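As agreed, record passed on underneath.
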Amino acid sequence: MKTLKKERTAEHFGRITEPGCIVFTRLLPGPVERVWAYLTESEKRAKWLASGETELKAGGTATFHFKHSDLSDVDDPIPEKYKDMENGAGFSGRVLQVDPHRLLSYTWGEDSPEASEVTFELKQQGENVLLTLTHRKLKKGEMVSVGSGWHTHLEILTDRLEGKSPVGFWKTHAELEQEYTARMG
């Protein structure tokens, strides 16, 4: 299987801005309405993160059905430690804030005692869109997994928006998990 390791610069990595909080920024091809659709429409979101409906109102439900093997056409075997996710995984959250084409925030794993919060902020910058993703209320032991997971998903989103075929999720995630472990200790 041929894989292409992406060049990753410091600004591509999530930044810990306070305990339990990691922030990512990406400059994506616009317009902002297109990026918004990839955050909110199940069919488009399924191409880089997870399918599932999102009620775009405060208090609405956001559902996530992950099937990582569907994010790429590359044959990408699942690592043994994630075998429980081989047939997919899912959870729901509660929408906290919506400002169409600018802000979307929801709880991540609403039914879990470890529920956290994810916020996407979008800003049009010429023909591009600055995406800021903030994941808050994380436990210390979750930072490497969440950091490498979001980083991988954002690489796939970038590829999709640029019209490229993404590499396999699990291979990319394994590379990034090692890098985040080294960075976060």
Remarks:
- The mean pLDDT is 92.
- The CA atoms of residues 86 and 177 lie 18 Å apart.
- The chain has one domain: 14-184.
